[in-house]
Amino acid sequence: MKRRTLMIALAALLLSACASLPSKDPLQVTVAGIESIPGEGMELRMLVKLRAQNPNQAPIDFSGVYVELDVQGKTFATGVSSEAGTLPGFGEVVVAVPVTVSVLRMVRQVMGVLDGQPVDTIRYEMSGKLNGGMFNTHRFGASGEFELPKSEPDTIG
């Protein structure tokens, strides 16, 4: 009986501790720029500059960044950086992350687009994290789509 009472008390304590944690709004991360960098034979390398915005009062110290880009629901590019810094409260910072695109992934994407079905829009999803320590990882994500330009039929006049 004492064990059961102890377990209930412990559960109540843990629940009240979680309820007292301050709520935080998620980071907003967008692509600020892309530059080409040298790669090896079977890969394309780009330096992706991410603009991270912190909509919270507390600053975020980080020491490492990971980003993944999915196109049409398949992984297209990934990258990591050991860049460290501080994302100020109600502030922003630009972080550079070298990203790799495998030629095999590019071929898979093209083959998926050319499967005979017309493609009007391309869906993308970016996800990643700023590493702030063992219990302080800040995950982010963004998604969207863009329409492909429609080709006009040639007219002979």
Overall number of domains: 1
| Unreliable parts | 16-21
Which series of helices and strands comes N to C? HEEEEEHEE
CATH classification class: Mainly Beta
User: How many β-strand stretches?
Assistant: 7
Q: Which sheet architecture does the biggest sheet show?
A: 7 strands, antiparallel
Strand order of the largest sheet: 1-2-5-4-3-6-7
Number of continuous helical runs = 2
**How large is the share of residues in beta strands?**
over 45%
- Return the CATH topology: Immunoglobulin-like
Mean pLDDT: 83
What does this protein look like?
- With 157 residues, this protein is an alpha+beta fold.
- It has a single domain (24-147), classed as Immunoglobulins (Immunoglobulin-like).
- It has helices at residues 2-19, 103-113; strands at 28-37, 43-53, 60-71, 74-87, 92-102, 121-131, 137-147.
- It has a seven-stranded antiparallel beta sheet.
- Strand 6 (121-131) and strand 7 (137-147) form a beta hairpin.
- The longest helix is centred in the N-terminal third of the chain and has 18 residues, at 2-19.
- It is globular and about 80 Å long.
